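ok, trying the design again with the full structure, not the truncated one.
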C-alpha cells in the first residue's frame, strides 16, 4: 500500500499570494468566469462576491474564541477564501476535481467550501462520524484527489483510509 501523507496545512501569507497571482490565482478565477453558468451569476461563489462588494465592512461571521467573540468582515472573509483558493490551485486542484471535507462544523469548513467554489472544484462533505470503511467508499466513489480532516481523530481515520483510495493524492489537516 502506498504511504499516506498527512500534514497540517495553512494557506500562504498575503505576500506569498501576490507572488503567486500570475501563476495560479488568475487561472482559477478565469476558470470560474468561464463556467457555463457564469453569465447568470447565480452561483453561490458569485453571490458571495456580490455580497462582499455590497457589504464589505459588515460582519460576516462571529466565532467564539475562549470567552470572547471574534468578528470577521465580508472583505476579510473574502481575502481568506481567496488565499485558500490560491493555495488549492498551487496544490494542483483544478476545476471539477473532488476534495473531501471530513470535519465537524468549524470556520475553516465554510472557508474551504467557498474556496472550492471559487475555482470550480467540487466539495465532497463527509460526516465526521463516518467509519474508515465509509470514508474509503465515499471518497473513493467520488474520485477525490485531496482530503481535509479536522480534529486528530478524523485525521487518523483519513490517514488510514488514504491507503485504499487510489485517486487521493494528499491528506491535509485544518
Amino acid at each position: 500500500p502506498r504511504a499516506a501523507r498527512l500534514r497540517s496545512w495553512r494557506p500562504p501569507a498575503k505576500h506569498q499570494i501576490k507572488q503567486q497571482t500570475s501563476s495560479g490565482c488568475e487561472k482559477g478565477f478565469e476558470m470560474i468566469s468561464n463556467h457555463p453558468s457564469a453569465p447568470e451569476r447565480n452561483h453561490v461563489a458569485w453571490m458571495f462576491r456580490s455580497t462582499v462588494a455590497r457589504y464589505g465592512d459588515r460582519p460576516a461571521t462571529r466565532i467564539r474564541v475562549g470567552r470572547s467573540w471574534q468578528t470577521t468582515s465580508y472583505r476579510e472573509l473574502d481575502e481568506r477564501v481567496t488565499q485558500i483558493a490560491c493555495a488549492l490551485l498551487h496544490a494542483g486542484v483544478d476545476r471539477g476535481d473532488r476534495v473531501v471535507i471530513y470535519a465537524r462544523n468549524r470556520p475553516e469548513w465554510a472557508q474551504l467550501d467557498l474556496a472550492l467554489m471559487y475555482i470550480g472544484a467540487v466539495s465532497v462533505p463527509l460526516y465526521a462520524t463516518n467509519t474508515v470503511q465509509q470514508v474509503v467508499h465515499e471518497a473513493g466513489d467520488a474520485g477525490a484527489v485531496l482530503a481535509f480532516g479536522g480534529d486528530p481523530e478524523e485525521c487518523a481515520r483519513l490517514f488510514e483510509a488514504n491507503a485504499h483510495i487510489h485517486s487521493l493524492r494528499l491528506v491535509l489537516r485544518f
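Keeping the full-length input from now on. DSSP finds six helices and seven strands in the chain.
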